[in-house]
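The methods section describes the discrete structure representation at length, but only in general terms. Each protein is reduced to its one-letter sequence and a matching series of backbone shape codes. I believe one specimen quoted in the main text would settle the matter. An entry of this sort, consisting of the sequence and the corresponding backbone structure tokens, reads as follows.
***
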Amino acid sequence: MAKVAVYQEPADSELMPYRAVSGEKQGLGHTAGEALDALASQLPPEDTESLVIVRSLRADRFFDAEQRRRLEELMALRRQAIAGNARLTAQEEAELEQLVDAELQAATRRASALFHDLTQ
């Protein structure tokens, strides 16, 4: 199963405000679902099975405001680099990967907390 992140683009994005990203592949859409569908069409069949929980992209006890701010900043730099046929520095790529992993761990902890709340 592939790691997928869905982001709402900054308010100034015009037509496709949602972006789904998995590795080097990305999909855009008017909604988070459209962006996921656009991305899924590019993934190998073994990576298209997913459980999706949609939540607000605000800071929480699992992924704080500073982590969220830096992730958004690095994702913006990555989009600019891709648009300009450039690359992030090795340090930026490593930091971005670390933050994506931290958000994935936070999502796992959120899911565990949600499951706990639903089973009580």
User: Anything to note?
Assistant: The chain is about 50% helix and 10% strand. The first strand starts at residue 5 and ends at 8.
